[in-house]
Structure formats: structure tokens, C-alpha cells
Amino acid sequence: MSANTHYRNCNLCEAMCGLEIKTQDNEVLSIRGDKADPFSRGHICPKALGMKDIYEDPDRLKFPIKKTENGWEQISWEAAFDEVTTKLKDIGRKYGDNAIGVYQGNPSVHNVGTTLFSPNFVRSLETKNRFSATSVDQLPHHLAAMTMFGHPAFTPVPDIDRTDFWLILGGNPLVSNGSIMTAPDLGKRLRAIKEKGGKVVVVDPRRTETADKASQHIFIKPGTDVWLLLAMVHEILEQPKLNLRHLTDLIAAEQINLLKDLAAPYNVEMAAEKTGVPAETIRQLTNDFINAGSAVAYGRMGVSTVTFGSLCQWLVHCLNILTGNMDRAGGFMLTSPAFDPVRPPKGKPRELGRWKSRVRALPEFNGEFPSVTLADEILTEGEGQIRAMVTSCGNPVLSVPNGAKLDKAFESVEFMVCIDIYLNETTRHADIILPPATGLEVPHFDIGFNQLSIRNVVKYSDPVFEKAEGAKYDYEIFQELTRRMQVEELPADETARQQLLQRYQMTPAMILDGGMQKGEYGLSLEDVKAAEHGMDLGPLKPRFPERLHTEGQRINLVPKIFEEDLKRLANAPDTNGHLLLIGRRHLRSNNSWMHNSQRLVKGRERCTVLMHPADAAARNLTVGQKVAVSSRVGKIELPVEISDEMMQGVVSIPHGWGHGRKKIKMGIAQANPGVSVNDLTDELLIDELTGNAAVNGVPVEVGELV
Ligand SMILES: Nc1nc2c(c(=O)[nH]1)N[C@H]1C(S)=C(S)[C@@H](COP(=O)(O)OP(=O)(O)OC[C@H]3O[C@@H](n4cnc5c(=O)[nH]c(N)nc54)[C@H](O)[C@@H]3O)O[C@H]1N2
Ligand SMILES: Nc1nc2c(c(=O)[nH]1)N[C@H]1C(S)=C(S)[C@@H](COP(=O)(O)OP(=O)(O)OC[C@H]3O[C@@H](n4cnc5c(=O)[nH]c(N)nc54)[C@H](O)[C@@H]3O)O[C@H]1N2
Ligand code: SF4
Ligand SMILES: [Mo]
To answer: Which domains occur in the chain, in start order?
Structure first.
């Protein structure tokens, strides 16, 4: 019998909470918050215990399985790798490289092996048909970062521990635990702002859990934040004198004049009409923002996954810049991570739309097409049609608008391989599933979230348990797939050949160690490992102009693409007369994949449509009644919940449910299936500049079952 205590970061969401895990042999005895973690200070949420459930889950896959006439059969890794790479190569040869489609989902960035080793595999496929969850989420953040600061990874984070004024648009951090902002224990951090006399303002069509704890909540009609932000920019630029502080020399004066001209038509009265926010509230909000000692505007999912999502993220930056709050303590700041994956720029900064998707001509961004068109690329015949699919860490059938269409599309491909730990709504279409070790069985390091944290921190976590005998780490799977995809192309030159072969011997630990030693703090992996509760590397520091990879190292305040995109506002569709659908996250869910934990799904039904009492009354609907919700693309049936926390005219349904589809193997999830809101969201409703999905602001009807 051996009892042990382990310290490690939770990898389930972006908050990086430190866990204290007590084990006995192969069993988890307890999971608590690690009070000695300098960043999370003992905070955890109910999902942390889900780590135990995932580890013990009898439905979790550990070895490759293959679909046969007699159902799924376990096969050896050798046979699986062989068949996968043979089929992918055959399809590539027969139809061309673009015949292979790839979709990478959210846990990719929560797994160090996948983060570091999947890119080479994806490159080895040489296909342009690459997709990911980014385009159903935060693509506009990366676009604004790339065009304004010169790199898609330069997404600043709100310095909430030092700010006097935090404006949150379309984020619910008390439930999501923060996003594009790693900040464990947000409840305490938010309270601290108020206790020191600061203010937190939430703009949201729903009075959320965060809004409840804020100093002020402002209801807004979904999809209209762009007018609010433009009016705020307009008001700021109308002041007699701007206070750009340290940014003055980083912005060309012509750009400020240009922005002033562009914002001129968008005044407070127009914003009030479009958004439903009273004019005096917009003026008060703008003045409070300007006059705060330090202030930061932060916009998340609710202003990213809407039809003007990219304009919103650009304008959020403009607010912070024009008030001198960008790259300043208490404002919007970039991190200084111990492992910094961003390389100094070579050549020109990247652009949006270097090539276009085949069917809908949607722009490429960062080498990927928008996921809203993945189904089109599979279903539309012609040269370049996707004939084989690779998914990793993704469940697009439940996550991408018009999931039902994608469900049908996956059914039709000639070959599909999924790198995933469950047989779920997406992976059921696979011919072969390759499951990596996960969670407590793998070493953990937050490359992405150390880059997004509100203090500079670093931690390396050893596995708590050994992986099952014969199981593989994710990086081993990607390494082997890459090797086999490339084997025919090994260079003839012996040195080059050895170099390439050496690459196949690399481990995540080697890459992290090398990267950190060369990094700002010169830490070795051993140094970091020695600090088992994690290391605090101090508050965020200003990073401009060195972190401006733009021409002349200046902020590009008005990128051409946003100037052009403003023209779309004149023709914004009129959504009056419709109910508008928005999303909703719950503390005990994590997108689509953690509903196989009994402790996380138990209790009251959460997959409901939430609406305002007046909207329910107008339709004669009563609490708990099962209703039909329909949109251009589909119809779902679910119970209604009624609350004045909703803005009138707006309804909310959480995503990630819909486990009633056949032939999946997630027993607990299947017993609590819910329905998928993405059978209602519309693949044609997008941010037209980028093709990012608009999962918020979808016109729907709600009525009695007929
Ligand atoms: N309507 C609506 N739709 C939305 C959203 C919304 O708010 N509303 N949110 C969007 C957002 S923000 C996101 S990020 C996407 C998420 O979209 P996806 O990334 O497509 O979906 P997830 O639900 O995160 O699915 C994760 C998958 O990874 C698998 N998995 C878990 N751990 C591991 C692991 O260690 N290794 C491997 N290989 N696989 C693993 C799970 O079994 C599951 O299949 O959904 C988007 N869709
Ligand atoms: N418990 C839990 N935590 C999670 C996840 C989860 O599924 N469950 N998912 C993780 C992932 S992948 C992500 S990306 C993050 C997301 O993190 P957040 O963005 O903080 O989470 P959401 O709950 O989607 O918050 C979006 C908010 O926008 C509001 N909203 C909708 N439309 C509009 C609009 O037009 N304007 C404005 N101003 N607001 C609008 C919604 O009411 C909602 O409150 O959460 C992460 N953390
Ligand atoms: S808040 Fe996120 S990181 Fe912290 S315990 Fe919960 S799921 Fe894990
Ligand atoms: Mo996300």
C-alpha cells in the first residue's frame, strides 16, 4: 500500500487551478485546492473532481479500436498506425492532398503533447482543409492581435488584480472561470476590485452570475455591441484632449484622425436605438471608463461569436488604447511567459485570407478555414472535396453550427480517424479511434495559458498515475503518425536524415526544457519541477514596443480590413420580431465532453431554454413545459425555464448536450442526454469578415409542441 500526495494543475479549463491530490495505489482518495499554489491559492471548482471520474471512467478508451462488421474491435497500435497512414496516403494519392480534412478541438490546448506534436502531423498531411474550434470561438481575438500588434498570439489580458475599472462584455467569468484570461479564483479577484473602491461593469443580454456580483449590469440586445463600442470610441475621440499616456509615440496621428472620421456617424443615440442600452447609460459608462485611474475593457464569447465579432474585438482594443490603458498596469497587458512559443518575426506579418475555401470562398486564417464550412467541403462534389477526416480533441457534431449537417457529412467520408478518449457523437463516425492517455496519467504544462495569465507564472506537473500498460501518450501517437506519413520522404543526405530522425526522438520535456532555458528567466525544467506548487514570476510587465511585430513597431490602430468591414453595418439584417438565441455555460459542464461524470450531471435538468416571463406569457408557456425551438436549420424540443434574468426578446440554451444520438458509448451522458443547441445554430450566420461562427444572436421561434 502506498499513499501519496501529488500537486498538479487542473487541465480542464483555462484557470490552471493547483490541485492537491491524495492517492492510494491506483486510486484517487481526494482532490482539493492546493493552498500553497501562489496563483490559485486553494481555489477549485466542482469540475476538478471530474479528473477522478475521467481517470476511472470505464467508458474511456485506452487502446485503438476499429469499426468492423461485428462492431468495434480492439486492434494493436501497430495495426492501427499502419492502416491509418496507409489509408490517408492512398486517399491523398487518389484525390490530392486537400482530400484530407482535419478538425482540432478545444482540449488540444489543454494537452502539452498535442500542443507540441500535432502541428507537425497536420503539416505532414499537406492539406489546406484544416479546421478547428478556434473559428467557433476566439478567432476575432487573434485577428485583432495579428493586424494591430503583428502576431495572432499577442492577445492581451486584463490586469484585473491592479485595475480600478473592469468592463466585461459578453463574458461570464464566474462560471467559465475566465477565458483568454487565466485567473483562478475570479470570485475573490472580482470582489477585491470592488473592495478597493473600483468598479466592475457587465454588458450582457442575461443577468449572469458575474453580473450579479458586479457593480453594474447593462442589458444589451445580442449582436449589437459593435454599435455600443463605436459610440464609446466616438465619445472618447470627441473629448478636447486624448490621454494616450505612454502610447503617444506608438500610434501615428493620422490613424487617430482616421478613426475619428470612421466613428463619427456612430453616435450615442444611434447606439441606444440599436442596442437597447439607454443613451445616458452609454454616456455614463464611457465617462466612468475615461475617468478611472486605470481601466480595462475585455470582450469574450458573447462579442466574439456574433456577426460583427471581429469589429468588436478591434474596438475593444481601441477603447483600451485611446484611454492609454493598453500595455499598462491595471489595463490590457501581454504576458512574459517562461516558455515563449512566439518567435521574432521573419518577413511580413501574416494576413487574413491568403487563400479561400473551395465551396463558400471563406478566408483562411492562420492556415485554417472556418469550421462553419467543414460540412460543405465534405458534401460538395468536385476537385478538392474532402474524402477522409482526421479529428483530434474535438466533437464538432455538438460544437459547430448545424451539427446535424456535419453529422451527415461525416457519415459519408471514405475514411475517418479520431484521436479521442471517447466513442461520442463525432467519433462514432470513425473507422479507427486512437485514444491517448489523458488527465492524471500525463505530464502537464500550460503552454497556452501561461501566455494568457494575469500574472507571470509557471508550473510543471508530473503524471499522478502511470498510463495503462501498453497505452500511449498523445505526443507518441502524433510522432508515430508523422513519422509514417513522412517516411517515404526521408532526405537522402545523411546529416539531414539524422536530424529528422532525431526529431522523432523528442519528448515534450526536452522541448520545454530547451525553450525555458533560452527564455526570459533562464529556467531549466528541473528548476520548475522543484517548485511543486508552481512559481510566481511576478506581475505583468509592459511589453511594447518590443512585442509589436508590426511595421515600424507601432500599433496599427486602424487595420484596413476593419475599416472596410464597417461598411457592413449599414446592411445589418433587421432581427426585430424574432427571439434571439444566445448560449449559456454552467459550472458543472465543460463544452460537450464531461457529461459522463455522475457528480457533474446530477441534479436539476440544465439543458433548458431560458426566457423572460413576458416572452413566455405571450406564448402561453409555463415553467418546465417542453417546448419546440426552431430556426432556419432545425428544431429541438426541451423544457422551458422562466426568469427575468433574461432580457426580453432573448432566449438562452447551453451547448454541448445532445447525447441521445445512437451508437455512442458514454453511459452516464446517454442517461442525461439533453439536446444540441447546434442543431439550431446556423452555419450561414457568421462574422462575414472571417467566417467565425455566430452562435450568439441566432433568430429563433419558441412555441408549444404540436
Ligand atoms: N452553440 C454554441 N456552440 C459552441 C459554443 C457555444 O458557446 N455555443 N462554444 C464553442 C467553443 S468556445 C468551443 S471551444 C467549442 C468546443 O468544441 P470542440 O473542441 O469540438 O468540442 P469539445 O466539447 O471541447 O470536445 C472535446 C473532445 O476532446 C475529447 N478529449 C478530451 N480530452 C482529451 C484528450 O486528452 N485527448 C484527446 N485526444 N481527446 C480528448 C473529448 O472526448 C471530446 O470528443 O465549442 C463551440 N461551440
Ligand atoms: N463551466 C464551464 N467553463 C468553461 C466552459 C464550459 O463549457 N463550462 N468552456 C470553456 C471555453 S471553451 C470557453 S471559450 C470559455 C468561454 O468563456 P466566457 O466567454 O466567459 O463564457 P460564456 O458563458 O460563453 O459567456 C458569454 C457571455 O456572453 C453573453 N452574450 C451572448 N451574446 C451576447 C452579445 O451579443 N453581447 C454581449 N455583450 N453578451 C452576449 C452570454 O449571455 C454569456 O454570459 O469558457 C471556458 N470555461
Ligand atoms: S476552475 Fe477550471 S482549472 Fe480550476 S478546478 Fe475548475 S475546471 Fe479545473
Ligand atoms: Mo472555447
So the answer is: 139-338 (3.40.228.10), 575-704 (2.40.40.20)
Question: Which conformational region is residue 256 in: left (phi greater than 0), alpha (psi within -120 to 50 degrees), or beta?
Answer: alpha
CA distances from 153 to 148, 275, 394 (A): 11, 31, 21
| pLDDT at residue 1, rounded to an integer | 54
**CA–CA dist 211, 219 (Å, integer):** 10
Phi, psi of 28 (to 5 degrees): -85, 120
Ligand 2 pocket residues where CB is under 6 Å:
13, 106, 137, 169-173, 175-177, 179, 203-206, 208, 220, 222-223, 225, 300-303, 306, 582-583, 585-587, 589-591, 696-697
pLDDT digits (tens, 9 = 90+) for 264-297: 999 999 999 999 999 999 999 999 999 999 999 9
Query: Rounded to whole angstroms, how far apart are CA atoms 312 and 553?
Result: 24
Buried b / exposed e over 632-662, threshold 16 CB at 10 Å, is: ebbebebebbbeebbbbbbbbbbbbbbbebe
Q: Which ligand 2 atom is the nearest neighbour of the CA of 221? A: 35
> What value, to the nearest 5°, has the Cα angle with vertex 614 and ends 611 and 619?
80
Distance from C-alpha of 100 to C-alpha of 11, rounded to nearest angstrom: 30
State the pLDDT at residue 532: 97
Residue 22 β-bridge partners? 5, 30
Ligand 3 pocket, CB under 6 A: 10, 12-13, 15-17, 44-45, 47-48, 177, 184
